[in-house]
Amino acid sequence: MEEDLGKRSRRVVLKLLGIMYDIRSRWEKKLGSAIDRYASRSIEEITFSEFKDVILGYFADFHSDLSRSVVKYVQTLVEKYTSTIESLEKRVAASDTYNDVIVNLRNEVKALHGKIARLQEFLKKELLRTVKYKILAVLEEAGKLSVKELAAKLNVSERQIRKYLKELEKQEFIEIKRDIRPYVVVLLKTPWNI
Considering only the top CATH level, what class is 131-187? Predict the structure, then answer.
């Protein structure tokens, strides 16, 4: 069983590395074309802040794309482990006479619960590297906040907060109460506590 877990862990790591490599390749091409576009203009035509905004925008989009792919894969693993746990729990409930089997199954269930907890912790840690998901962590602590309060707590512009709020609302992680002025953002769920 331990050997199987090692093989599965290696497969998970290889899958994540494959996702990251594919995304990195796509974004290297996009960033290269942006740099080429700016390289063709004369230096007087380009302001530093304009160039900085474009480059930072590309990096933010790259990280968001990467986070989305990793989140999707980890959520798939969590669902798979959850399904396995449910199956094992049914087997435990059905076998009254096989004490050794019951003990082994309970140990497997505990191990899978531990894996889910570690995966959720990993997911939270990785997601909190981006402003988009830091919004959820701040809301998790505060309950509800306005756009202005979120921007102040995260030290980013309200424009950037609004951009991420649209995405988070679309993913049904938050709800924006538009009947209150200023708008209030309420946390519905987080991807690390599914």
Answer: mainly alpha
Asked if residues 134 and 161 have their Cβ atoms less than 8 Å apart, the reply is: no
Joined tokens for residue 147: 């756009």
In the chain, domain spans: 2-127, 131-187
Tokens of 121: 């912790």
Report the alpha-carbon distance of residue 112 to residue 48 in Å, rounded: 51
Task: Tell me the per-residue pLDDT of 55-114, one tens digit each, with 9 for 90 and over.
Answer: 667 666 766 777 777 777 777 877 888 888 888 877 777 665 567 777 777 888 888 888
Q: With contact defined as beta carbons under 8 Å apart, do 132 and 164 qualify?
A: yes
Do the Cβ atoms of 168 and 160 come closer than 8 Å? no
Sign of CA dihedral 140, 142, 144, 148: negative
The partner residues of 175 in beta bridges, in order of sequence, read 186
In three-state secondary structure terms, 185 is: strand
User: In the numeric block, which tokens belong to residue 153?
Assistant: 């707590």
Amino acid at 120: Q
- Contact present, 67 and 133 (Cβ < 8 Å): yes
Beta carbons within 8 Å of 122's beta carbon, 6+ residues apart: 74
Q: Going by C-beta distance under 8 Å and a sequence separation of 6 or more, which residues neighbour residue 41?
A: none
Q: How far apart are CA 43 and CA 140, in angstroms?
A: 45
User: Tens digit of pLDDT for each residue in 156-192?
Assistant: 898 999 999 998 999 898 899 988 888 899 998 888 7
